[in-house]
Amino acid sequence: MPELRKDPVTGRWVIIAAEREKRPRQIGEMNDAARSEPCPFCAGNEAMTPPEVMAYRNETSPANSPGWSVRVVSNKYPALVDSDARIFAPDPIYESRYGLGVHEVIIESPDHVVNMGALGVEQISQILRAYRVRMRELTKDPRWRYILLYKNHGDRAGATLEHIHSQLIALPTVPAQAAGELNGTKRHYESTGRCIYCEMIERELRQRERVVLNSAHFVASCPFAPRFAYEIWILPKHHAAAFEQSSDQDILTLSSALQEIITRLNHALDNPPFNYIIHSIPPRETQSVHYHWHIEILPQIARAAGFEWGSGMHINSVAPEDAARLLRDVTV
Amino acid sequence: MPELRKDPVTGRWVIIAAEREKRPRQIGEMNDAARSEPCPFCAGNEAMTPPEVMAYRNETSPANSPGWSVRVVSNKYPALVDSDARIFAPDPIYESRYGLGVHEVIIESPDHVVNMGALGVEQISQILRAYRVRMRELTKDPRWRYILLYKNHGDRAGATLEHIHSQLIALPTVPAQAAGELNGTKRHYESTGRCIYCEMIERELRQRERVVLNSAHFVASCPFAPRFAYEIWILPKHHAAAFEQSSDQDILTLSSALQEIITRLNHALDNPPFNYIIHSIPPRETQSVHYHWHIEILPQIARAAGFEWGSGMHINSVAPEDAARLLRDVTV
Questions:
Q1: CA A294 → CA A34, A92, A240, B1, distances in Å?
Q2: Which of A16, A181, B143, B255 is in the most buried spot, having the most CB atoms within 10 Å?
Q3: Is the pLDDT of residue A27 over 80?
């Protein structure tokens, strides 16, 4: 069973999940036998995954059969599991907990599509609606303090299956990265009365040098201090704290923006591996004036190395102003 | 020129160093032309690097010529540079600084050796003595608040040249990762009067299940809450805060331990890519009772992915107890 363990010096939590070692691999280092295995995410192979949690499917097709366009299942090799939580025996220095949580997979096409750039806006919009459904549903459960929706695309970005998919993990605590963001936005709100992301959007739209896309409702720009080369954030122009409260119209315009950004990345950088992460306010936060949801797209071209792991600081060899220029100017 | 930039929300600093984009590549994705380039780290090619900062060499050989066994040079593509520091123009939300620091490369063999496991204890000992010389020297400069010594071995661990080498970066501030460790050790010392690493060593030696090597002066064990599969820490058994204050005898026994651990990793995991990082107390810390220097060896087998970048938490699919058993039992 998965276990949460706390480093006694830094207080950093890790998830020890030995079950995940058994995952099949479609990409990266693997042998030909593995490569010829059927894909568990393709239509027709529904029995290869756990039963579906939800799906968008035609009305006549039964659950766990073909006829779907987007399908959500429990992760077969979960990092965390939803079960009766037990606190481990107390220990003077080594703290651990049962690995409580939810780990789901959003399968983003019934066909063996391997790149989001190949999908139309309507399909991307269905995918984002599925994210919204699952986040809304999990938000109702008072145990979950944070819901992390992320995509790993390509071997270098940590994907093990190439069939297009994203993942969702619901956590019983707000993790360090999200807590850092929340503290920062609250501090800024308390001292200025403003949402710092709203201020950054105004600044970027005035200055323009880091903006990649400026549509009616969304702006995509390379952040001022990016950890990764060609990192891009997509933000709603109007203040909104929770992705899962987006309207259908928001989702549709976001889908266009996301498709255009992925297409620009693919053309400019020859289909780079990337992660994207939806940063949304934690479900149990009572105030929403300070936080602003957004998507962070993190191309994985260089690698985090000894310096990054030892210092916590990233070295980025592409200035965001240069990255934005390339992504703006590329012909799509 | 490199630049330090602060994320306005989280306060996280990044280094923007566009010069590094010009680095040559010996490994990973590259074309045949790059592969046939001469290696800048091999004896005879000294003119391909910046002039040497120090070298262990036979007495008759002049600087920057063959005749050396370990050679330290400035990094030709530095992440930070030692120059007159200037604060950038103040900005209400976007804080930046000139990228002040030192970035050196320790070339660990005159021959084109690509794996530390191929080196004898005497050569490893010379390498560690070179680390000590450079750390002692840089510690004298009051501008440097932290010195990070690290190795990137293999493409997945972020190396771009395969010829065996390590790197050293001196920083004008204590970075987040080190600050977190220091805060944790101080907090533990204040509440218990003890060094937490000393307590962990006692516990590991009593419990044994995570110990890989137990020599007279050093213990190597998989930590209780490792971020990476097969992560191993090497710690001196007797309390010591600064690596650079190690005696010649310490260095010699550490060299044996390091060689054995690298050999065990190579045999158990088929020459895995890895980083190692020397964690030593910052030069300007006045107290040393709470901190305990050590080496963290981080094999890079899985990849940090969307979950890790979005949460700050790592998922590790190999329990340290299982990792230690494999590394103990492997035939070397």
A1: 37, 40, 9, 31
A2: A16
A3: no
